Amino acid sequence: MPTLAHDRGGDLRRYELAFRVLEQVDGVTDLPAFKTALTGALADVYRVRSTTFFVGRTAQLACADPSPTIIGITRHMLPEYQDMWFQHDIFSTPRALRSMIDTRVSTLGEINGGTQENRLYVTNYLQRHGIESATAMYLDVCHGRKALVGLFDRDPDRIGVQEISSLRLLARPLAQIARGLPESAADQDTVLAKLSPRQAEVARLVGEGLSNATIGAMLHLHPASVKKYVTRILAITGMRNRTELAIALRNTGTS
Question: Pfam families in the record, alphabetically (predicted)?
Answer without folding.
Answer: GerE (PF00196)
